[in-house]
Design brief:
There is one protein chain. The protein has 309 residues and is of the alpha+beta class. The protein folds into 2 domains: 117 residues; 167 residues, OmpA-like domain (60s Ribosomal Protein L30, Chain: A). It is built from 8 helices and 5 strands; from the N terminus they run H-H-H-E-E-H-H-E-H-E-H-E-H. Strands 1-2-5-3-4 form a 5-stranded mixed sheet. Strand 1 and strand 2 form a beta hairpin. Helix 3 crosses helix 5. The chain is elongated, with a radius of gyration of 58 Å.
Length: 309
């Protein structure tokens, strides 16, 4: 509508002039030239307006694109700032570690100097410890030899007339263990000794008497089957009474010094086998006699004057 307005204006102007008055042909041709020129100017103006509109649209698109790029750049900048902050924190940590390591090196240097000053004293102490180690080795060898000889003597004495499953002699470190089955020592469900028990205890007593420097501990064990009667309260009570019966027999029947005897009850605990089977329960019902050095005798073995040359 904007492009046709000049044309209409000129058309009505020409018509008005033609109606109001008569013009010459020359004037008419001049006016027609002006009309054509105005039409060309209007077309050019329309083309320039269209081009400007296209430019405006392009500018709008560029503006939107630039906004997107600006947002992307802001996001990238934020991420880089976070990365820079993280790198700075890492750098601070590395500096602290460096300072700590430097301090540690300094401390180690001081310690090394201090340790170097004490090398001679340390070597002297090691030599003393080496002598003590030789002492312990000699004591252990002596104790092992004594226990081995004791075990051999016991097995030899007990071999005649006693089944293997009823007696088990073992050597462990500085002590000798003699495990005796309950069926050989006691009447069923009681703590009264059998005649066979006194026979076996008599043989053990001979070995004990030949070693007056040793003490004797008697430990009673039971299975986990509960017991409760007029004389026995529970398995603890039964195990203690059985150990006491053996101790009394060693003292009164076989003349063992009571100062060397110890009675202890372990009840159903410290079992050797599962109590779920009859065989396991039979294994757990036992009495253990432990022959061990007296404490002063053991310390005598560690006397420096006893170290072999």
């Amino acid at each position: 509508m904007t492009n046709t307005f000049p044309k209409l204006l000129l058309f009505f102007l020409v018509m008005g002039l033609s109606l109001s008055s008569c013009v010459t042909k020359k004037e008419y041709l001049s006016l027609q030239d002006e009309l054509q020129k105005a039409n060309r100017d209007a077309d050019e103006a329309a083309q320039r307006a269209s081009a400007l509109a296209n430019q405006l649209n392009a500018c709008e698109r560029d503006k939107v694109a630039m906004r997107g790029e600006t947002n992307n750049l802001q996001t990238t900048l934020s991420l880089r700032e976070e990365l820079i902050l993280d790198l700075r924190n890492q750098l601070d940590d590395l500096r602290r570690q460096r300072d700590q390591q430097a301090s540690t090196v300094g401390d180690l240097t001081v310690l090394s100097q201090s340790a170097n000053d004490n090398i001679k004293e340390t070597l002297s102490q090691l030599e003393q410890k080496d002598e003590y180690i030789q002492l312990l080795q000699a004591a252990k060898s002596k104790a092992d030899s004594i226990n081995l000889a004791l075990a051999v003597n016991l097995k030899s004495v007990l071999r005649d007339g006693i089944a293997d499953e009823d007696v088990d002699v073992r050597v462990d470190k500085t002590v000798v263990f003699i495990n005796l089955s309950d069926k050989m020592l006691y009447q069923s469900g009681s703590y009264n000794l059998t005649s066979r028990a006194n026979e076996v205890l008599g043989k053990i007593a001979k070995i004990i008497q030949s070693r007056p420097e040793f003490e004797v501990m008697v430990e009673g064990y039971t299975d986990n089957v509960p017991i409760n009667n007029d004389c026995i309260t529970d398995n603890w009570d039964l195990s203690v009474k059985r150990a006491t019966s053996v101790v009394r027999a060693l003292q009164y029947r076989h003349d063992i010094d009571p100062n060397r005897l110890i009675a202890a009850g372990r009840g159903q605990y410290n079992a050797l086998a599962s109590n779920d089977t009859a065989e396991g329960r039979s294994t757990n019902r036992r009495t253990r006699i432990i022959i061990l050095p007296k404490l002063n005798q053991f310390y005598d073995l560690l006397n420096p004057s006893n170290v072999p040359d």
